[in-house]
């Protein structure tokens, strides 16, 4: 949501609001590195030990992942945490890899 101090969105309405705001303010360019954001959300998810929260990371990208090995490692590391990762590719890039 472009807020480093409080990067969470509340519900689908918060996700949509953040997405619409990002469309107006974010300039898309490469490289496309996912591991850092996955690790950041995984760190927040690891803080929750009582089952009271579940994190959903939605990544919308117009580029092919540049750090594929690190992204795979981050996903595997996060797989036991209370979180899901959704990656949506948009545009003409080749997302087959």
From TrEMBL:
GO function term, MF aspect, one: calcium-dependent phospholipid binding
GO CC, alphabetical: plasma membrane
Residue ranges annotated for the Copine C-terminal domain, each copy included: 1-96
InterPro entries the record matches: Copine (IPR045052), Copine_C (IPR010734), vWFA_dom_sf (IPR036465)
GO biological processes: cellular response to calcium ion
Domain of life: Eukaryota
Annotated protein name in UniProt: CPNE9 protein
Organism: Casuarius casuarius
Annotated gene: Cpne9
């Amino acid at each position: 949501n472009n807020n480093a101090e409080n990067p969470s969105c509340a519900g689908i309405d918060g996700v949509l609001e953040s997405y619409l705001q990002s469309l107006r303010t974010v300039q898309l360019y490469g490289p496309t590195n996912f591991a850092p954001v996955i690790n950041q959300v995984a760190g927040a998810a690891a803080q929750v030990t009582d089952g009271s929260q579940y994190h959903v990371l939605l990544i919308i990208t117009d580029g092919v992942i540049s750090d594929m090995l690190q992204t795979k490692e981050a996903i595997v590391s996060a797989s036991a945490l209370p979180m899901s990762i959704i990656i949506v590719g948009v545009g003409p890039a080749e997302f087959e890899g």
